[in-house]
Design a protein that fits this description.
This protein is mainly alpha-helical. The chain folds into two domains: 1-71; 73-147, no CATH class. The chain is 35% helix and 4% strand. The chain contains three helices and two strands, in the order βαβαα. It has a two-stranded antiparallel ribbon with strand order 1-2. The radius of gyration is 20 Å and the shape is extended.
Length: 147
């Protein structure tokens, strides 16, 4: 069933949490790299991180009218672990994995890439995702032309 409204209740909170964790990881990584440079007395240019502020403090959007907002496609980049619990659409199988064909779901405008065996063995690998991404991008362009 397609609806022109997408429920995105936990998305903002999940995104803010994920972005805050990424900022925290970056700061710790840079600190470790700087420590190594100092310990080994290496010559390296000084780089300072921008002061991190909580740029995620905004009103949480719980529902969005996709049509009114002009949104026809959502690209979801989620990282290294699969967690589709936030996808509240009828596109997941009994195991919670997307039902798709070459990335396209039965929900118009919703696609996935980076999944193992999406189309080929290499689909779930960094060096193989490009072929699938190209296919999905072409499908999105085709869908937009039909609308």
């Amino acid at each position: 069933m397609r609806t022109d409204r997408a429920l995105i209740g936990g998305l903002a909170a999940a995104a803010a949490f994920g972005l805050a964790k990424a900022d925290e990881f970056e700061a710790k990584l840079v600190k470790r790299i700087d420590g190594y440079i100092e310990q080994e007395a290496l010559s390296a240019s000084l780089e300072t991180l921008p002061v991190l502020k909580d740029g995620f403090e905004r009103d949480e959007i719980l529902e969005l009218d996709l049509q009114a907002a002009g949104i026809t496609t959502i690209i979801w980049a989620m990282g290294y672990r699969f967690d589709f619990s936030i996808v509240n659409l009828p596109v997941l199988d009994a195991d919670g994995f997307p039902v798709q064909h070459r990335g396209a779901t039965n929900y118009p405008g919703l696609y996935f890439v980076g999944l193992p065996w999406l189309y080929k063995y290499k689909s779930g690998h960094l060096l193989g995702v490009g072929d699938d991404a190209r296919y999905v991008a072409e499908a999105i362009i085709k869908l937009r032309k039909e609308c």
